[in-house]
Amino acid sequence: MSRALVIGAGPAGLMAAGALARAGLSVIVAEAKPSVGRKLLMAGKSGLNLTKDEPLERVLAAYSGSVADLVRGAVAGFGPMEVSDWARTLGQEVFTGSSGRVFPKAMKASPLLRAWLRQLDDVGVEIRTRWRWTGFDGTGFAFDTPTGRAVLHPAVTVLALGGASWARLGSDGAWAPWLAEKGVALAPFAPANAGLAVAWSDHMRKQFGAPVKAARLNAGGTTLRGEFVISSRGLEGGAIYAISKAVRDGAALTLDLCPDWSAEDVATRLARPRGKATLAAHLRKSLRLDPARLALLMEFGRPLPQGAALAALIKALPVRHDGLRPIDEAISTAGGIAAAALDGFMLRALPGVFAAGEMLDWEAPTGGYLITGCLATGLRAGEAAARWAG
Ligand SMILES: Cc1cc2nc3c(=O)[nH]c(=O)nc-3n(C[C@H](O)[C@H](O)[C@H](O)COP(=O)(O)OP(=O)(O)OC[C@H]3O[C@@H](n4cnc5c(N)ncnc54)[C@H](O)[C@@H]3O)c2cc1C
């Protein structure tokens, strides 16, 4: 029986392992951490958003990066419907939440992961934890293992080591120089779905932890209404992640603090008699600004202009920030193995070595697109690797 090696036991690697085993190969999964799927389990802490229930064209349009076409091809065959069916085969009924996000009813990842591991065990996949790939040894793959150094010479390999964020969960990007040395083209890692760093004035301390619910964000061509949170480090949360690519690409970010009203409506409301009220009280009352939005206006807008200029500022408040938060805090990473390095899912420079998941150069917003992309590319890379070995 041909021996297949999968390195990395996240969603992409486990999917590849299943495909290889079902094709009749003997499969070893090498995982650096003491247990598997740590990022998947972390993703489940805030509700495991497996996929997005929306027309396939919209799903496919969510992917970008040099490898986006390859990912789209995989997701076209293993997309929202297939991901939901797959979860059901693991005993995890799914439901569609707000804005089409699909979650397992259990919300967390652990029951799904447990059932998945049982299924992989049934088809003979052997998982070796605390097996850290440390680079190449000639044509072999060298590992630090609990019993010392080991070098494997599999017939075929799928690399699924993840991106370069949340290193404590395993995906530290250490593999990039080893592949670069072999002539594999890489796009530099960059934070995706990341928060914004803001050096707040002391006035903002009271707002740390406050959600901002009613604002519209505009950055480059990206505009959306959504929620985010003011934190001690800056601005975080779904709506900020959604504009982070545009900000990374150099777009300025503005906030519309009164998205339900036109600039004229805002100006009319501001022109109401103020009486003895302070400007802050007047803004709060006439525009129904909650403390968080009022604080943002003061922080980024002072000294406040008057009349129509103030209305215009409230509709397009420029956010002063210090760029994206560091890559290790990002939900996902852009960059990685570039399209030029790939023939399908196989590395041109290393025949018989395939790659899948977040280590490829693609990105997508949050909303389930990431896990769907990892599952789909893992499956297709595993199938391609099995065909190559066969
Ligand atoms: C807080 C958080 C919440 C998220 N929520 C969601 C969500 O709800 N929906 C969604 O779609 N996506 C979400 N994501 C993103 C999603 O979890 C990732 O995109 C996905 O896990 C990537 O899968 P992967 O298999 O490519 O890599 P990973 O899941 O990162 O797995 C890679 C594996 O490779 C192992 N590894 C790395 N280096 C080595 C080595 N040298 N030797 C051996 N093993 C190694 C790692 O330990 C790890 O187990 C979230 C991410 C975070 C951080």
Description:
It is a single chain. It is elongated and about 85 Å long. It has 390 residues and is α+β, with helices and mostly antiparallel strands. The longest helix is centred in the C-terminal third of the chain and has 21 residues, at 369-389. The chain has helices at 11-22, 38-43, 56-61, 68-77, 80-89, 110-122, 176-181, 238-248, 263-270, 279-287, 291-301, 307-315, 369-389, and strands at 3-7, 26-31, 51-52, 94-96, 101-104, 126-129, 132-137, 140-145, 148-152, 156-159, 186-192, 196-197, 211-212, 216-219, 222-225, 228-231, 234-236, 253-256, 317-318, 332-337, 342-343, 346-347, 353-355. Helix 1 (11-22) packs parallel to helix 6 (110-122) and helix 4 (68-77) crosses helix 13. The protein has a 5-stranded parallel beta sheet, covered by helices on one side. Strands 12-17-16-13 form a 4-stranded antiparallel beta sheet. Bound molecules: flavin-adenine dinucleotide. Flavin-adenine dinucleotide (FAD) binds next to helix 1, strand 2, helix 2, strand 7 and helix 13.
Keywords, please?
4-stranded antiparallel β-sheet; 390 residues; binds flavin-adenine dinucleotide; alpha+beta; 34% helix; single chain; 23 strands; 5-stranded parallel β-sheet
With helices defined by DSSP (H or I, 4 residues minimum), what is the helix count? 13
Q: How much of the sequence is in beta strands?
A: 15-25%
Secondary-structure class: alpha+beta
> Major sheet, described briefly?
5 strands, parallel
Q: State the helical fraction.
A: 25-40%
Give the tally of β-strands: 23
Which spans have pLDDT < 50 for at least 5 consecutive residues?
none
